[in-house]
Amino acid sequence: MIIEPRIRGFICLTAHPEGCKQNVVNQINYVKSKGAINGPKKVLVIGASTGFGLASRITSAFGAGAATIGVYFEKPPAEGKTASPGWYNTAAFEAEAQKAGLYAKSINGDAFSDEIKQKTMDLIKADLGTVDLVIYSLASPRRTHPKTGVVYNSALKPIGQTFTNKTVNFHTGVVSEISITPASEEDITNTIAVMGGEDWAMWIEALKGANLLSPGATTVAYSYIGPALTEPVYRKGTIGRAKDDLEATAFTIADSLKDINGQAYVSVNKALVTQASSAIPVIPLYISLLYKVMKEEGIHEGCIEQMQRLFQTRLFAGSAIPTDEKGRIRIDDWEMREDVQAKVAALWEQSTTESLPEIGDLAGYKADFMNLFGFDVAGVDYQADANEMVQVPGLV
Ligand code: NAI
Ligand code: NA
């Protein structure tokens, strides 16, 4: 069928299989162009279908030649109804992996549940024996706790006081002021329960308990810091509390892996347009200014450039992994450069509905957003009949 974008707020209800495929092929080609990485050989990626997780999977497979298992939560297609983008991304990734002779299988379901953890462990045991890298890249608005059944919904709110600042509706380009009321204690607890470290620790404990981690195995989860501008709604808000918890969990996991010589890290990544980040107020305006500055400086990166650099120059560079004073890997180093942040802060002051198309990269933001769903991708014929029923070859 002919598939068109149907946008509702922060999401697009449709996805284009050919556009998603082209995005994946472009990412694979990028990784190949950067040369081989002396990296992991058997990799589990939790949150493998979009964003940083997908880019981590592509880098593992096509950079290091790794066998990969991906876990994700995506909507399969139905006659006349498209799948969600991560479904098509995975279908394309696995088809390319098979062509290249690389093992690739996946599990579609709730990674927070005991059932999906068990299913994943059974697959590792049967096919790979152990894994030497576990990437934890979930971004979810809710979590059902596997032991208590309690459903937690995360919030994106400031803590202590109302936060008022500018934001942009990236579809219309209208810059307006937004006020976000402070979180309740419950909002904080809930957000930590969803996006904090508990589930990451549960995964590693389960994998280790079943002897499915190779000696010297590494696990990495992703965090964000960002500038003072977004601090009230991000790093010092509810989501920031969850990231604090995630970062603290890296140390407890590292301790638990000592006897197998394993390691646990958090990598702080760059702000990028993903389904997760588009939903956070204020962030889209920041990203559109950041993109403008970083593109002008020639240091702009997408998810794949970030993850390729993380693997090649940090995790698997063959030397001690450089970290900041809090033990975190910093691949947000170019975003956080003083000159970059000074320019963004100055542009922030000037940004209005009228000035943004000129001083910011609103077009780049929109293009990236459309690309997430496989639309507006160069080289794809959107007038042609597309097969929405594409299947994931290695789905277990
Ligand atoms: P994303 O929305 O592109 O990817 C989320 C992944 O999690 C998808 O594969 C999705 O299928 C999977 N997922 C969600 N709920 C699930 C569930 N219940 N069970 C199984 N899979 C599930 O998000 P993105 O942006 O790649 O985020 C990944 C991590 O990177 C998050 O921790 C995020 O905070 C972090 N990060 C994001 C930044 C950004 O600007 N986008 C910047 C720095 C860090
Ligand atoms: Na991801």
Explained architecture:
The chain has 396 residues and is α/β, with parallel strands linked by helices. The chain contains 13 helices and 13 strands. The protein has helices at 17-33, 51-64, 85-99, 114-128, 185-195, 198-209, 238-256, 275-278, 283-296, 303-315, 338-350, 356-359, 362-372, and strands at residues 7-8, 11-12, 42-46, 67-72, 104-108, 131-136, 142-144, 151-153, 163-169, 174-180, 213-223, 263-268, 329-330. It has a seven-stranded parallel β-sheet with strand order 5-4-3-6-11-12-13, with helices on both faces. Strands 1-2 form a two-stranded antiparallel sheet. A hairpin with a 4-residue loop joins β9 and β10 (174-180). α1 crosses α3. The protein is globular. The model has no long low-confidence stretch (mean pLDDT 96). Bound molecules: 1,4-dihydronicotinamide adenine dinucleotide and sodium ion. The site of 1,4-dihydronicotinamide adenine dinucleotide has 29 residues, from α2, β4, β11 and α8.
Write down how many β-strands occur, each being a DSSP E stretch of 2 or more residues: 13
Backbone structural class = alpha/beta
Q: Total helix count?
A: 13
Bound molecules: 1,4-dihydronicotinamide adenine dinucleotide, sodium ion
Could you give the distance between the termini? 27 Å
Give the strand order, joined by hyphens, for the main sheet: 5-4-3-6-11-12-13
Poorly predicted segments = none
- What is the typical, i.e. mean, pLDDT? 96
- One letter per element, helices H and strands E, the order comes to EEHEHEHEHEEEEEHHEHEHHHEHHH
Rg to the nearest angstrom?
20 Å
Largest β-sheet summary: 7 strands, parallel
